[in-house]
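re the bet — no i am not wrong, look at it urself. input seq straight from the record:
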Amino acid sequence: MSQQTTEQQAHDDDLIQLVTFHIGDEEFGVDILAVQEIIRLMQITMVPRAPAFIEGVINLRGKVIPVVNMRTRFNKPVVEHNASTRIVVMEFDQKIVGFLVDAVSEVLRIPASTVEEAPPVVAGIGSEYIRGVGKLGDRLLILLDLNYLLNNTSLEVN
């Protein structure tokens, strides 16, 4: 076996660990290392003059955390919250942000080799938010790019 083949095989066997969640019919994944915790829906306080996709803020153990409604962020129709609605609390670049999602699916490990570059438009979401698309049998998993999503989200609450 050549060294190149061995390196390629090692690369193919690299696993990406993700937390997956649903927004409508689409399934998304984010790097598990960015996820601080997943909590049930709690009281969200509206903030006047905040961008439309900012649902409001929550008080989580004494910290005020902005909550981004992912449905609104991705231009999906608003639906009533239910027993499956969750807030995925993520820490990235020393910012803590909650993402309001329809449901959290599972923690997955997928081979890096199953992830392809994102096509120009996926599920109505601009490709700039997408790190790639993972193929899991007949499922497609949209991997979000937190660098872009959080750095290009105005989380400053007026």
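see?? Helices lie at 3-12, 70-73, 146-151. told u. also Residues 3-12 form the longest helix (10 residues). so pay up
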